[in-house]
Specification:
Two copies of one chain form a homodimer. Helix content of chain A is 28%, strand content 34%. The first copy, chain A, is of the alpha+beta class. Chain A folds into two domains: 64 residues, Winged helix-like DNA-binding domain superfamily/Winged helix DNA-binding domain (Arc Repressor Mutant, subunit A, Orthogonal Bundle), CATH 1.10.10.10; 168 residues, Chorismate lyase-like (Chorismate lyase, 3-Layer(aba) Sandwich). Chains A and B meet through helix 3, strand 7, helix 9 and strand 10 of A and helix 1, helix 3, strand 7, helix 9 and strand 10 of B. Strand 10 of chain A pairs antiparallel with strand 7 of chain B. Chains A, B: One of its GO terms (biological process) is negative regulation of DNA-templated transcription.
Chain lengths: 247, 247
Amino acid sequence: MAGEQPAYRRVADQLRRLILSGELAEGTRLPSLREIATQYGVAVSIATRALDVLRADGLVMARPGAGTYVRRFERIVRSSPGRLARDHWGGGAAIQDHDTGPRVRAVDIVIGDAPASAFVAEALGIEPGTPVLTRSRRFVVEGRAVQLSTSYLPRELTRGTRIEHTDAGEGGTYARLAEQGLALTHFTERIVGRSPLPEEASALDLLADGARILEITRLAYAEDRCVEVNRMVLDSDAYELTYSFPS
Amino acid sequence: MAGEQPAYRRVADQLRRLILSGELAEGTRLPSLREIATQYGVAVSIATRALDVLRADGLVMARPGAGTYVRRFERIVRSSPGRLARDHWGGGAAIQDHDTGPRVRAVDIVIGDAPASAFVAEALGIEPGTPVLTRSRRFVVEGRAVQLSTSYLPRELTRGTRIEHTDAGEGGTYARLAEQGLALTHFTERIVGRSPLPEEASALDLLADGARILEITRLAYAEDRCVEVNRMVLDSDAYELTYSFPS
């Protein structure tokens, strides 16, 4: 990476500066590829790659047939353990409320079942292939799809409870588990940054090549027993994660 | 993103499959751009973009003038709070030992000082611009540059101690602070995924456009007092982060 930057990177850096400084404001339509190419003295293919970079960085979005627009977005602050503290969900609140506060949010929830994968089965202490309940959610904040989340729970803990309804009731799944004597005591979260799979990119409207996601795999424990596996896919540019922990 | 994948993405996916299946093994030289173009029936510019995707994913690396090679790498598991537990550094171990175990590792350490930025000053409770000690490290694991890390500490805590030496002694900086009655009690870490700055890309040998880093900002506390700010830049493809925490 020593030496000269490639031309598309130089063009991307200059446009990025205009966006971050506010000269190109939120919602502004960018000049056309041909205009950018002329303005910076590069080929249209170079201008195309420059916009690919900005899309990957989440600074602009393409509206098919209508051009490319500046899209800034204040990162969602996702604070652990606060968001998963018992006095939060125990008080009836939704975990995502802790993250987004009053920001406009929409959630699609789909309840289903699936045979447990080897990973899910091992975590939950059941045989691979055993049907487990799935709660799949897609979160949209201020019009931007930001997260996919699928929980996997043993059927014996969900059957006949509101966990099998899209609206699991006050405090959600964790409050329902607590009512069965399985109040959660601790969690582990594993975070990996990677490229999205095609279906993830599609569901999160990640238009550009080079977009990245954070995959978070959470295991939720009631004492020694893991009672839920949750696999989340977050638009990397939409979040910051914070963790507090003792020495 | 609905519908057909772009051609470069399709080519990248097929090459990725060959790498992940081991058909293209670690260290193998990839076919030339022209050969890839011919093989997949696409333009050379499409083959170029496909390799950009694989480089961004950390699956291949370019050796200037010598072609592109398969480079796989087992992610480093960075486990909190275990790596920062008092019984770890208190026992004389280096924190990074917890992450990499016996894997071959090299570290460059540079000691310096710098005026405290607004962020560092506020965290440490000092005036912006006050000189603070900086310990800047660059970690290389199995020949791959994986992390940059800079600690900022108030000079009053470091003056005349081994914290001002590149080798801070057994247990490192945290053991030296404990000897002054400032044993660390807790930490916060803030994680953001983003594109690298040019100097970060250069220091981490991130060759391709689209590479991503995880920026981790840690505040280390002795009771109520923040005594260290540590800003880390991790090659996103080289790490997985895990956190354990109570409900």
